[in-house]
Design goal:
This protein has 194 residues and is of the alpha/beta class. The chain is 47% helix and 17% strand. It has two domains: 1-42; 52-193, Glutaredoxin. Helix 5 (125-135) links the parallel strand 4 and strand 5. The protein is elongated.
């Protein structure tokens, strides 16, 4: 065998190694780009690995939010909804229809049919506090759903969404979209009185 014949396999194996190494680096770069630009931005961890439900969740308090008495307003969990009928409203200060429906929640709170809980979804706490200061606070507790785990667990694609939650807790009425006076009068109020 000549020296040229012995060098040929080494040449190809080196070239193959370079090609595989290059492909590996390109794959690693593409994988990193997918994680940064798709997985994290779309928060796919929350979509695929979300074990929350109406019977299992815990929302922390909205930082710095105080009630009418000056005391810090608490967050809430499934345990708060378990023993009685209540209303759960998913909202955000950046949502135009949340602004439009808020007066209906204030009217509902004034009727004292049931406590109203608010889940502030993917919102800046300062904007949420300004929203409630401007329009009033119908909520007995406000939780920060900063990763929209509760929103997704309840099947809401966005905000607003309103639920009448019965003891258990279990969802008795689901309004996946904005409230209007007819919905409040024909679905929400009868469910709270029933």
């Amino acid at each position: 065998m000549t020296d040229a014949a012995q060098d040929t396999p080494a040449f190809f194996s080196t070239r193959r190694g370079m090609l595989l190494g290059s492909l590996g680096l390109v794959g690693l770069g593409a994988g990193t780009a997918v994680v940064e630009n798709v997985w994290k931005r779309k928060d796919l961890s929350a979509r695929f690995f979300n074990d929350w439900s109406i019977g299992k969740f815990d929302l922390p308090a909205l930082p710095g939010l105080v009630g009418a008495d000056g005391a810090a307003l608490p967050g809430f969990s499934a345990a708060d909804l378990a023993g009685r009928r209540s209303v759960l409203n998913l909202w955000a200060s950046y949502c135009p229809t949340c602004h439009e429906e808020h007066h209906m929640l204030m009217d509902l709170a004034a009727q004292k049919l049931a406590p109203i809980y608010g889940a502030d979804v993917k919102d800046d706490p300062e904007h949420a506090k300004a929203f409630l200061a401007r329009y009033g606070n119908p909520f007995v507790a406000v939780g920060a759903d900063s990763r929209s785990f509760l929103q997704r667990a309840l099947g809401a694609r966005g905000v607003p969404a309103t639920f009448v939650v019965g003891p258990g807790p279990k969802i008795e009425v689901a309004i996946l979209g904005p409230l209007d006076p007819k919905i409040v009068a024909t679905k929400i109020v009868p469910a709270l009185k029933g």
